[in-house]
Amino acid sequence: MSEKKYTAESITVLEGLAAVRKRPAMYIGSTDIRGLHHLVYEVIDNSIDEAMAGHCDKIKVTLHMDNSCTVSDNGRGIPVDMHPKEGVPALQVVMTTLHAGGKFDNDSYKVSGGLHGVGVSCVNALAEFMESTVKRDGMTYRMKFERGVPVTELEEIGPAHSTGTTQRFRPDEEIFEVNQFDFETLKKRFKELAYLNSGLEIEFKDERTDEREVFKFEGGIRKYVADINAGVNTIGDIIYGEGEAENIMLEFAIQYSMAYKENTYTFANNIRTIEGGTHLAGFKTALTRAINNYVTNADLPKKLIKKLTGDDVREGLTAVISVKLPDPQFEGQTKTKLGNSEAAGLVAALVYEKLNTFFEENPKEARLIIEKVVDAARAREAARKARDLVRRKGALSDNSLPGKLADCQSKNPEDSEIFIVEGDSAGGSAKQGRDPKHQAILPLRGKILNVEKTRFDKMLSNKEVRAMITALGIGIGQEEDEKDYDKLRYHKVVIMTDADVDGSHIRTLLLTFFFRQYQELIERGYLYIAQPPLFRAHKGKFERFITDEGELHSFLLEKAGDDLKLETKSGKTLVGDELMALVDNIRFMRKKFGECETMGITTELYRVLMNYPERIQYSHFETHDPEAFRKDMEEAGFKVEIVVEHDDELEKDRTYLVFENGNGARTRLAMEFFYSKLYKLGYQTYRNLLEQCGEMVFNLEVKDEPREIQGMFDLYEAIIDEAHRGWQIQRYKGLGEMNPEQLWETTMNPENRSMLQVTIEDAAAANDIFMDLMGDNVEPRRDFIERNALMVQELDI
Ligand code: 0RA
How many beta carbons lie within 10 A of that of residue 710, not counting itself? Predict the structure, then answer.
């Protein structure tokens, strides 16, 4: 090996990467799962840049068994020639120099300076290993790094017949608190990227579970809008426009529907700008102006001539707005608000022009849209009148706090908390249990919060909601200047609901309310969710509060410890950790069986599918005789028919297996089912169980007394039963069942409690759920359930 000379440059390089390792959060935000995903985003951003520059149309991301990740593209390949200044290959400069990125290419739309854009060298610094492979000029090059430090030279490893860059890295477990990538989270982001970069194909594979997705949308953001609006009663076609001025590229796609909600997604350089910003402001201005302009100038019947506000014209609107600009400024609490002032005017001008042209050329569609937004305006006016009436009565002025509120003594918002509590009875306990100096309680009656199928506006005229608004003291209104956050009376606003379905429903509603009305309150970090326990376990003087069933079972098993001994049919003895692992697997299977039931797949059928010794997939029927499969199933109690049908919507043939049990009840499963997590993970877990136990017959020994048990679920029940011995378990069905002291100790006492601080992302997610499930339109709800039910994965063909 040649002796290395440490130049001044190479020393700064090492220092730079050492700084990243020392303070990773400064570079990638955090070292939790979000930071882990950030690494992948950082690497794929570079490939996206290459695609945006027009040199790449395919990106492939793979998650490997060893928790490493590969991102490869078919771009030009990172240059490998000697860097004139540094005296090392350009690739090495990119991989080891902070912020080097691909800057020497002078491409102006890179995400650099943005949310990501810290440079692939940061990923390298935080990777246990990283391996860069470049194909260029007929040659394949490779260079390897460990924790940012080169461990090989740039090597020529063989010829190449194409070009591209491949980066494989494993996040360093010394740095990250977690090492498992989440398939769903990454998948969502890749899908979004594929929508935003039309024609770009992103393939995503998870070798850990054998899942695979391919995203490619020729329609780009038009298809995005179409997919958001799938199943909704839409008004007219999708309106699309694109343009470029002063180096800012804009694309937008919008479509109205009969719904009341607004769905606007804005992006800057492929980054979702949850907090909006100048591009959103420009778009809103243009939309309001263009529609009012049309109303004024077109020859419309009198009843449709009306001055429309921004809220009116956005009711029922689905919009995707994407800008790409050279030097994006990201502001706001989560750095997801575009700050470039030049974007506002340009977006406004382009959108205004496109919309004017569209309305002129499509008077029929324009008319439908006007009818919709005028209708919205009338409804809003009615709501406003109702609100004004309330205001005049003084219900919203700060000198008349709601009667139900038990306020705290402190008048200093900084050390005041308000608990918004579901139900009067829980409210009662909370009032008795609280620290009256710092804690205020506002009970809300659950039922009236049920605003399903009503306009969001109506929620504001609801008595309970008004009490909440008054208690907070900020004021209310669509405009930001109607609100005064300095008047907020509490700097901790805590949502406290039951740990059941109704409770989570109410929590979603409240989060949606805060997301839409008081975003800044969330941004300032004032909103929390209380974590009441679900169980109380006690034995003599010992008492423990526990949040969910899984934790309860683990707790009991741990306490039972080596008193439990299990012998499998194959003669293996399991105790302690091994037994726990087995129980975990069974618990997982129980959950899967439960999920199956809710999807219309009977336990009986799922059990047979799990017991079938082969994993079913398309290729199964290529290598196995379908007749044999049919016979096996018949023996297990099911007649099977294999049906191929044309699906008009998907424009392709789909294969279904139709199972009929002894009673003639039929279950139809699309082949895609066998590519779902429900099936694949279930199958894998079940195989592991079988391997561990041989047959599902066991001897459970408790304090030397054996008993025989058949089947894994019975075993589970028996083990848990045994573990319960000597323990009294109380299950809280609601907060109201806890006495005031318990509520204080477990949930409200700042010394013991753990509360979740709500982020804007949490609230945005609640808003999405609200729209999906509780919206005014049944269609999207049905669609949601169906999508879940089928869990259609991209087909493996
Ligand atoms: C700058 C110049 C050139 C390629 C790239 C950057 C590049 C970077 C990445 C990062 C991931 N994939 C990438 N693909 C390409 C080459 C310019 C040329 O060949 O003339």
Answer: 11
- The string of pLDDT tens digits covering residues 742-761 is 899 889 999 888 888 898 88
Q: How far is the CA of 134 from the centre of ligand 1 (A)?
A: 10
352 sits in which H/E element: helix 341-361
**DSSP letter, residue 104:** G
What lies within 8 Å, CB to CB, of 333 at 6+ separation is: 275, 523, 524, 525, 760
State residue 477's pLDDT score.
65
Using a 10 angstrom Cβ sphere, with 0-12 exposed, 13-18 middle and 19 or more buried, the burial of residue 785 is middle
Which residue is associated with the tokens 């019975």? 714
- Give the separation between CA 419 and CA 412, rounded to whole angstroms: 16
Token pair, residue 718, equals 């028996």
Tokens, residue 20:
């990243």
Residue 500 a catalytic site member:
yes
Q: For residues 620 and 623, what is the distance between their CA atoms, to the nearest angstrom?
A: 5
Q: Find the mean pLDDT for residues 210-222.
A: 94
For residue 81, which of 72, 73, 92, 71 has the smallest C-alpha distance? Answer: 92
As a whole number of angstroms, the distance between CA 557 and CA 586 comes to 14
Q: Are 114 and 338 in contact (CB under 8 A)?
A: no
* Spatial distance between the Cα atoms of 615 and 695, rounded to a whole number of angstroms: 19
The residue assigned the tokens 């990243």 is: 20
The whole model's pTM is what? 0.58
pLDDT digits (tens, 9 = 90+) for 618-637: 767 766 677 888 888 999 99
Q: Is the CB of 46 under 6 A from ligand 1?
A: yes
Q: What is the CA radius of gyration of the chain?
A: 30
Give the Å distance between the CA of 109 and the centre of ligand 1.
14
- H-helix or E-strand containing 757? strand 756-757
Domains of the chain (ranges plus CATH)? 8-215 (3.30.565.10), 221-384 (3.30.230.10), 391-533+737-791 (3.40.50.670), 549-731 (no CATH)
Residue found by looking up tokens 């895609």 in the block: 672
Top pLDDT among 18 and 772 is at 18
Tokens 């949850």: give the residue: 274
Six token digits for residue 141:
């090059």
* 75 CB near ligand 1 (under 6 Å): yes
Is residue 172 over pLDDT 70?
yes
Length of the chain: 797
Categorize the per-residue pLDDT at 459 as very low, low, confident or very high, splitting at 50, 70 and 90: low
Any ligand 1 atom below 6 A from CB of 753: no
Interval 600-619: pLDDT, tens? 788 889 889 988 888 887 76
Of residues 652, 639, 622, 619, the one with CA closest to residue 796: 619
Top mutation candidate among 49, 107, 167 for ligand 1, by most atoms within 8 Å of CB: 49
Q: Which atom of ligand 1 is nearest to the CA of 167?
A: 11
Distance of alpha carbon 177 from alpha carbon 190, whole angstroms: 24
d(CA 349, CA 179): 46
Q: What are phi and psi of 549, to 5 degrees?
A: -65, -40
SS3 599: coil
The closest residue, in CA terms, to atom 18 on ligand 1 is: 76
- Token pair for 719: 């083990």
Q: For ligand 1, say whether the CB of 78 is within 6 Å of any of its atoms.
A: yes
Pairing between strand 127-136 and 139-146?
antiparallel
What is the CA(77)–ligand 1 centre distance, in A?
5
Q: Nearest C-alpha to atom 12 of ligand 1 is from which residue?
A: 47
What amino acid occupies position 320? V
Q: What angle separates helix 33-52 from helix 183-196, to the nearest 10 degrees?
A: 20
Q: Give pLDDT, residue 607.
A: 87
| pLDDT at residue 557 greater than cutoff 60 | yes
Q: How far apart are CA 383 and CA 461, in angstroms?
A: 7
E strand map for 51-163 = 58-63, 69-73, 127-136, 139-146, 149-150, 155-159
Q: How far apart are CA 600 and CA 789, in angstroms?
A: 8
How many A from CA of 87 to the centre of ligand 1? 19
